[in-house]
Amino acid sequence: MATLKELSKRKEGLVGGHRACAGCGGSATIRQVLLAAGDKPTVVGIATGCMEVATTIFPYTAWNVNLVHNAFENSAATVSGIEAAYKVLKRKGKIKDDIQFIAFGGDGGTYDIGLQALSGAIERRHKMLYVCYDNEAYMNTGYQRSSATPYCAHTTTSPAGTKIPGKAQWRKDLTEIVIAHDPAYAAQATPGYYMDLIRKVEKALAADGPSFINVLSPCVPGWGYPSDQTVNISKLAVETLFWPLYEWQDGSYKINMKPREPKPLVDFLKLQARFRHLFKPGNEHLVEEFQAKVNRRWEVLLRKEQATSA
Amino acid sequence: MSMKFDRPMNWKELPAGCLIDEAATSLRFKTGDWRSMRPVWNSEKCIHCLLCWISCPDSAIKVENEKITGIDYNYCKGCGICASICPPKASAIEMIREEK
Amino acid sequence: MKTVAKTGNEAMAYAMKQINPDVVAAYPITPATEVVQIFSNYVADGEVDTEFVAVESEHSALSACVGASIAGGRVMTSTSSQGLALMHEILYIAAGNRLPIVIALVNRSLSAPINIHCDHSDTMGSREAGWMHLYCANSQEAYDSLIIALKTAEATAVPAIVSTDAFILSHAMERLEVLEYSDVQNFIGEYKPRFSALDLENPKTYGPLDLQDYFFEHKRAQIDDFSKVLDAYDKAAKDYAELSGRYYPAVEEYKTEGAEVAIFAAGSTADTAKEVVDDLREQGRKVGLVRMRMWRPLPVEQIKATLGKFKAVAVMDRSDTMADFGGPVFLETRGMLYDSEEKPLITDYVYGLGGRNIELTDIARVYDDIEQVANTGKIEKLITYLGVRGEK
Ligand code: SF4
Ligand code: SF4
């Protein structure tokens, strides 16, 4: 695996001058993914969303690689087509280089509107890495709930009201849905654990077939925390078991980070305005329920790891 | 690479199609003036762990030969991630209020 | 050149085989399914070099085509009706990006009610998407048109739709002449894309965001590119005529010499109307037919010159605009002729929705009506729904 020192000599895939918010977790994710991929020619697709909008305002692009943006729900389908053209042009000798393909999408473009295209692309076994930069809501349009939005989170379409305390439903487990497709590789990561993310990108790109990494990417205004806390919150998500770091390959689960003493979920929640209402008197049970569910899911993951380890 | 940046192009000057026909043109767009806080890096305290570099969302920490050489204020938005992540034993980055 | 018997779908699939595109991404839909099915057989038997992407929806079909075309491939697909509607969003994106993708399309009505038979509401609904569009009158023309359209599309970087009428053409067996593979390949030439996302030397950003400062300029440039399609088409059609002996003008005239009235129609109905014209001409009546083959871009000058000669014209529309003002061909034809010194009286016949048969007697009745309009100089009924129960 490339060390930070080695990575620091690579060409940046995403340069400065883009218009993402200060402290944006999504930009950090994309930058790290491209650095990890950066030793080989890479062509990238991206779904409409925060990252596409902030990085491609004509005539200014922050991308140092070929980037293709088509629409919101079709990043996976678009890169399917690029990869198909690559295969045939390579067969015909019109392309010499070995090129790797990465498709990006936010959680809206991946969990929701782009889920069908992602499912199709994995089923067809296109050799591409799909990276979801999951910031847990439709941030680009102003913080609306998505199926990735966590339980109880306040968003502008799941507002914390006097009767309903934020999002009533648990989030969709997209990583498990992808694993059900039997991809070549699947994982969860977050940029606070950058070496874990970089290693996973390398592994995913080396896998022989479609791969997927779901990257929890904190959003300063959408989650409501000070901009210098992005990395800290990203780490807390893992340390509180809210966002387990794990990977899946050939039917086996591996948890990459098992906190010896997991931190209480409130450590993650209390830093964010979207969970502020949970700390009002009378809402203690919600935090308890949330914690219990996180614990339960962690135990299920532990059992999966145990059941599938060689 | 036919694009112009010094003035708005008219429709006949646009690159054919719907594309930006150069890479990394955002380097011409300076986001440094968004900053209200400025990270100040202390070369003497820095242990060159590169944590700040890998975590900066704006690719604004300059590295040469595996060593930090400074902060690119053209792009740094002053988010403070670098200062918050710098190991306590080094504490090589301090955030100060930007003079307007 | 050899003579074969093929349905419209078989003819289009065969043209695709001879074009031998780099990528075909497609999804089955009645009545265009066979095009994809036959083509996938060519792929399975190694008769083409194409990478076939069997996507999970038409939306992904055209999305993958966009990706493949930006990557520098020669790209085709096939669809119909709801499939084209599902592609709608991406039609604009393909055109805006100047991707010369060609769709072999079968015209079918749009739901609701759901129906699998012919009308033109699917393609009429996409008329502002920035695609060239040719309506074919028979299988021979469908085969020839795909080849001509591909050449025009690649010359102008404007995508193209070539369509036949559901079942009437798509499933009806006809005799047609096909070219040799090498002749088709020589005619279309090697594809030289204007850009490729696989070009690692010069990384570019495809499909960027425009704010208020650039969107209009990009659209203006696209409209300019589109304005070059008609000339490029004329050249391709003439070159193709030299090769095949078959010439397809953008607007076809049939027995218009000395005619005082004409029907202006597209698709298979125009071929049917020729029979009626023959009959009526034998009776000494001064009737003719003008066939609208190219609908996008509009061959405005040709249509004006042609229709301007008549006293009265009946437009046949196989779809309705839901504007309470007839069909799209009617509306645009009246618009084109508004400034003409010599202009006919124009009436509209909306017909054949959802595959309703158009009989020779229906067409004869249209000629009766339009002669009356020409003789009296008066339009009694501007818009007629022809062949629907409960309507005269
Ligand atoms: S303050 Fe933020 S943008 Fe500026 S160098 Fe530090 S991490 Fe980068
Ligand atoms: S995090 Fe601190 S010590 Fe590490 S390289 Fe950056 S400034 Fe130097």
Written description of the protein model:
The complex is a heterotrimer of chains A (310), B (100) and C (392). Chain A contains 12 helices and 8 strands. In chain A, α3 links the parallel β1 and β2. Chain A has a single domain, classed as 3-Layer(aba) Sandwich (Rossmann fold). Helix content of chain A is 38%, strand content 13%. In chain A, α2 packs across α8. With 310 residues, chain A is α/β, with parallel strands linked by helices. Chain B starts with 18 loop residues before the first strand and ends with a strand. By secondary structure, chain C is α/β, with parallel strands linked by helices. Chain C folds into 2 domains: 242 residues, Rossmann fold (3-Layer(aba) Sandwich); 136 residues, Rossmann fold (3-Layer(aba) Sandwich), CATH 3.40.50.920. Chain C is 41% helix and 20% strand. In chain C, the strands form 3 sheets. A 7-stranded mixed β-sheet of chain C has the order 3-2-4-5-7-6-13, sandwiched between helices. In chain C, strands 10-12-11-14-15-16 form a 6-stranded mixed β-sheet, sandwiched between helices. In chain C, strands 1-8 form a two-stranded antiparallel ribbon. The longest helix of chain C is centred in the middle third of the chain and has 18 residues. Chain C starts with a strand and ends in a 6-residue tail after the last strand. At the A-C interface, β2, α4 and α6 of A face β3, α3, α4 and β9 of C. β1 of chain B pairs antiparallel with β9 of chain C. The site of one iron/sulfur cluster has 13 residues of chain B, from α2. One iron/sulfur cluster binds next to α2 of chain B.
